[in-house]
């Protein structure tokens, strides 16, 4: 089994600036410590975008310090709070496609992970995601590569309606095109995303989808809310994918509370 760690929506701010009273850097550090303690043997770390809050060089420099000396190879994606040029200046080794988008393929022995860049500063409404013709061409090319190899598709904006009206309003603009493209490839086994700050499991176009929580602040379960600004102080979290030799995938999520809970071994209670 190959173990892939997943983070999304880090929202690192300048030092001293909080989000709903929380320090995103402190929350991320707490989650990273938990990940190191439990999963130092993981094969890869995916970070699905919204790496920082304002897209500034100061924030990306702070993020780089927080991620120093990680035990896993790390792949970054862009979210609506990111700035592509500023990110690339701070992380010059990030995977770029031929058109300069932060898109890359992770090749596992038994699966490919396709990492997409949905950042679209000119999309309407603001903070929406979009995959332009060049990025869609890249996706189609990668989906066609190595027929029969299971594919996991990762992106920031979920390509489906979540029921959070405010967040769906700033969702993936061309999600119907993306779903149609993914449906045309029999190798797609799972789509993973962030953006919502909540654990969500879904099926869209017959494809399994998973959305992961943030290490920092979460979305309260207020379906139909017309705003995208609702946040709640719940435990930070990370995700974990187990990819088997037959291409089967198991999805886990783990909350990281402020205080470590004791793990009791009581066979009689199971």
TrEMBL record:
Pfam families: Metallophos (PF00149). Keywords: Hydrolase, Iron, Metal-binding. It comes from Thalassobacter stenotrophicus. Residues 3-198 form the Calcineurin-like phosphoesterase domain. Belongs to the cyclic nucleotide phosphodiesterase class-III family. The keyword Membrane does not apply. The lineage of its organism: Bacteria, Pseudomonadati, Pseudomonadota, Alphaproteobacteria, Rhodobacterales. The keyword Metal-binding applies. This is 3',5'-cyclic adenosine monophosphate phosphodiesterase CpdA.
């Amino acid at each position: 089994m190959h173990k892939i760690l997943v983070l999304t929506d880090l929202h690192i701010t300048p030092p001293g600036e909080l989000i709903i009273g929380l320090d995103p850097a402190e929350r991320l550090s707490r989650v990273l410590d938990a990940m190191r303690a439990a999963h130092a043997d993981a094969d890869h770390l995916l970070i699905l975008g919204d790496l920082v809050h304002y897209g500034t060089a100061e924030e990306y420099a702070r993020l780089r310090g927080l991620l120093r000396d990680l035990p896993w190879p790390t792949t970054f994606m862009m979210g609506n709070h990111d700035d592509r040029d500023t990110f690339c200046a701070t992380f010059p080794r990030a995977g770029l496609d031929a058109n300069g988008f932060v898109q890359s393929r992770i090749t596992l022995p038994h699966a490919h992970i396709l990492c997409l860049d949905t950042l679209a500063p000119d999309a309407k409404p603001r903070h929406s995601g979009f995959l332009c013709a060049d990025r869609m061409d890249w996706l189609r090319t990668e989906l066609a590569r190595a027929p029969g190899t299971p594919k996991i598709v990762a992106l920031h904006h979920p390509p489906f309606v979540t029921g959070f009206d405010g967040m769906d309003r700033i969702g993936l603009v061309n999600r119907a095109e993306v779903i149609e493209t993914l449906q045309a490839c029999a190798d797609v086994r799972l789509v993973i995303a962030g953006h919502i700050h909540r654990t969500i499991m879904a099926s869209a176009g017959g494809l399994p989808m998973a959305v992961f929580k943030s290490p920092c602040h979460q979305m309260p379960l207020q379906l139909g809310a017309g705003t995208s600004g609702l946040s709640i102080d719940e435990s930070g979290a990370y995700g974990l994918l187990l990819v088997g030799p037959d291409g089967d995938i198991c999805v886990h999520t783990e909350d990281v509370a402020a205080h470590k809970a004791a793990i009791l071994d009581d066979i009689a209670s199971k």
